[in-house]
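Operator note (shift B, R.M.): manual run for Chaperone protein HtpG requested after the automated queue skipped it. Running by hand, logging everything below so the morning shift can see what happened. Input copied straight from the record, untouched. If output looks odd, do not overwrite the archive copy; leave it for review.
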Amino acid sequence: MQEKGTISIHTENIFPIIKKFLYSDNEIFLRELVSNGVDATQKIKRLSSLGQYTGELGQLQVEVAVDADKKTITISDNGLGMTADEIKKYINQIAFSGATEFMEKFKEAKDANEIIGRFGLGFYSAFMVADKVEINTLSYQDGAEPARWICDGSTEFEITEGSRETRGTDIILHVNAESEEFLEKHRLQEILDKYAKFLPVPVKFGTKTESEPDGEDEEGKPKYKSVEVDNIINDTNPIWTKSPNDLTDEDYLNFYKELYPFSEDPLFWIHLNVDYPFNLTGVLYFPKLKNDYEFQRNKIKLYSRQVFITDEVKDIVPEFLMLLHGVIDSPDIPLNVSRSFLQADSNVKKINSYITKKVADKLAELFKADRKAYEEKWNDIGLFVKYGYISDEKFAEKAKDFVLLANTAKETFTLDEYKTKVTDLQTDKDGRLTYLYTNDPDKQDAFIQSANKKGYDVLLMNSPIDTHFISHLEQKLENTSLKRVDADVADKLIKKDDAPETVLTEDQTTQVKTIFDQAINKPAYKVELESLNPEELPVTVTMDEFMRRMKDMAAMGGGMGFYGQMPDNYKVVVNGNHKLITRILNEGDAEVQAKLARQAFDLALLSQGLLTGADLTEFVTRSVNLI
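Run finished. Output pasted below as returned.
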């Protein structure tokens, strides 16, 4: 048997395109060829189970071997095998309607996955690293003869009688000079660990040394000897392929450690398993995040029939759940997936919605089943829930019942519970409810104490996402505003009808303002006199809530860059009813008046951490001189 011919691709440009434009992603050749071997092996197993193949199956596996001297990589399987006619059908004919269409479509392709997936080039990815490829195969069919196919990277091929004596296929790559990195065992091991770690058929790559018991020594202690065993690189039955009823907590934790060996144990997990209207399995873990969420992304791995595809799952997993860890496997997502496919595919959108629902249902279940345990996890899961509440309407609808607000007294409340708690005291004279919060309890302690004295509650909002969460709450909650506790003095945060009367005359008010303006002498600080409770601080420095929030959003990259570049401006609130102000007015010496005013201003700055560097040194010197 001998035959020569031309591969029916209607263009001689196919191989240069593969070699040139797919070079940056060339490692996927091994994924493609090993996956093909796995498919062939699974098919023979299936035929055997149906009684359509009655021969011995033997030990089904795919083997990868490298010969650095011959510069070859061989991928072998003992699956279906092929006849010469099947080679012509499946290898020689690439289903293009024409070269023009191919070249036109190719212009839109962004990466190797997209080209290979769109044009069915899985096998031909071998030419990304090889300048000659051989197929040596023997079909499972009775009476089949072995066949050998060889191609040197042009459109010319040759089919001759093969040498294989057992069922299956060998793909032999003659590695080109530019790709000799793949002749190194550690490089191939790295790729197999990445793409084939959970394939459903054993994948052998050489051997490895292990220790096994070898009797006892003279003292009765166990002895061990080194033995060479097959290096099987994959777990063929990962936990996501099993029923949750057959798994223990230890199984889930062990699998998590296998995926993320240096991470803390997760808080809990969700086992995904659905077969309609799409197929999806997987396990998603909630890791311990605290407030360090920016560095935890891309921890979810996407598989298709246990073949790794990517860890960039943005279109499949909702944005707010990119903080989760784990695996998702769906045969409805093609192996050679592209970003444009993910963005357009209807199954992907359904999967996205399904995952959102499953996570929401799990959180609701945890909250209802054991609220105390849920509250104890809030510091870790709060980021997920708040992020989802902000970014996903469907999730927010469910999350309104289990998103929690925590206050400075370390109490937690649902949204409805908190509204009930603060409505009576924190509703202003116009009937508008005000929630107070702090993002730094230590720096804002004086303001928190002032608010607490009036019976006000103060929420703790100190996670990286809380700036956006606060603004979103104001949109969601009817007739409610949120103010940081240091946005104004306590008497002015929530305007009431019972404001204290001023003890100063109009002339005295003007005199005090002039004294403080001259003592401070900084354009960024605007002095205002207020009639406050005499027990409140004599001087308080605040920043307008709106401006401060816009600056916080700018710092978080929230699209408020204009505000981020504006200079800081503060309001200096002088409590006209405080006894220190009366003392300043009664002081006959203008220099002493100025010193007392500046001292009160500096103490206000110091209490908020706004007095630093040279200003702090100058303050200490002035304090000593004043004494």
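Quick read of the result: The domain at 2-205 is CATH 3.30.565.10 (Heat Shock Protein 90). Residues 200 and 236 are 4 Å apart (CA to CA).
Leaving this for review. - R.M.
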